[in-house]
Specification:
By secondary structure, the chain is an alpha+beta fold. It has one domain. It has an eight-stranded antiparallel barrel with strand order 2-3-4-5-6-7-8-11.
Amino acid sequence: MIRQVLRLAFAVTAAMLLSSCWWVGPPLYIGDPADAGPVKPGLYKAETIDAPDQPGGQSKTETFTLRVAWLRDGSMRWTPVGPRAKDRMNFIAARLAVPGRDLWIVQNRLGKQKDARLYGLMEMRADGLWVMPAIDCDTTVDIVRAAGGTVSGGSVVSNVVDADDVAPEMAATPAPSPPPAGKPTNQSCEFADRASLERALRAYVAGNPAFSLHILLKRIGD
């Protein structure tokens, strides 16, 4: 579970990479060893609270010990203590200036691609750290275009289903709402520079989106 939680927050799975439906761009930030992120170096007791995927679902929690370190290049390293230390994650956190909020841009590697990065958000609040590891493209295309980003790719979904194609046991079960007919899905949102990315991020957080991962941190050592 620890590995799954950290991968959710800071790594890109093969499925995410293939779908190309997140906010991406070239490496726009370099780490600052004097200002590496919202969580200072040290040893922490961490409790993650993963929001349910579906309304009415149960959240998932996991408690473990986490070591946070700053590397010489200014990136952050989060390492679970114990046998799962190999699941450590490296990423860059850069401040996003929004009045009244402690927001950080998360820049993470996009799979094994050398010149591509995935962009997400962190926010430190009174009740802990909130993380949006990746931002969906399909639901934010207007924000992306207005900020100067580009939207490409995708395929059009048809919602027409023949009655004979529905299994009897599923006929009475409410299905999740499908994407609107005729709307592209699995699009790619790309940013070529910091200015356009940060305009889009500010517009995004202005809508108060839910952050998918909540992490409670208690410092227990250096």
